[in-house]
Automatic annotation (TrEMBL):
One of its GO terms (molecular function) is DNA-binding transcription factor activity. It comes from the Bacteria. Coiled coil: none annotated. Gene3D superfamilies: 3.40.190.290, Winged helix-like DNA-binding domain superfamily/Winged helix DNA-binding domain. Belongs to the LysR transcriptional regulatory family. This is LysR family transcriptional regulator. It comes from Photobacterium sanctipauli. Residues 1-58 form the HTH lysR-type domain. Keywords: DNA-binding, Transcription, Transcription regulation.
Amino acid sequence: MDNRALKYFEAVAKAGSIRGASEKLHVAPSAISRKIVQLEDQLHVQLVTRLGRGVTLTEAGKELTQYIKEMQVKENEFLAFLSDMQSMKTGTIRLATGGGFIDDLILNAISRFSKKFPGVQVKLDVCGGDEIIRKLREEQADIGLVLNCPTSPQIDFLHREIFQPLSLVVNPYSEFGQLEQCTGETLDSIPLALLDHSFSIRQIVSQIEDSHGCELWPTLECNSFQALKLFALSGAGGTLLPEVCVDRELKNGSLKAIPITLMPTEQTSVDLIMRHGHEKTVSIEKMTQEIIKGMTVFNIANQAEPIKKELAIT
């Protein structure tokens, strides 16, 4: 239906006459009359009955008046919804991340975002790198946090940084806690808990093996960062993780990070990504800002230098 015709009809219904509507709208009576006739022709029903200088509404006219009122209410509700979205009073944002970023992400980004925008629900999915990329491509997540994301026309990089090197993480009071550095021979002699091969960090471990000419056999192989930390805390052995993954434990002294010699020269990146063409809503922009500004992994001192060309965002 013609919005202008509906506007004219509503004014006539309120004024009780075409002339009254004309005076209110500052539109010629003939123009209003023509629009109402066109509306009646379109709907194949009479909307008004003309009586002298005034009009009365037919049953159909009364129903149309109610319809216009309901549409105005819905329009106002929709505009209010859009306004709330713009001011971040409501909404949902879906994040997919690797398990190693959980503490850093929640403590230094999600918590700050939620304090600023308590009406926005955050849905967090923890999974491996390939699964994160799949979820983005299939619109099951808005933002992904992953290691070494391959370049693809389907993926946009929101931010990219050089990732920390891996360290041997142990209980400082265990028999391994006195080490100040770790060689390949040392690694080969320590019981290790390692992530399985579906994780990007395990690929970095493979690079360490190549560098040292050794093959590490894990005492515990799993898909849980928490399990790795518990194994190290138990004193039964160690694990290989970047310091950012055990930041809290390093600060409270329950774990110790020991540098590994002959670390691979090939750099690893930590990537904040989204699907190419996905709408970058206000909530995504705000969450992206909190992640880049707040997460330790994006704000480590030795990452202050410009990222090398091979890691440049394309």
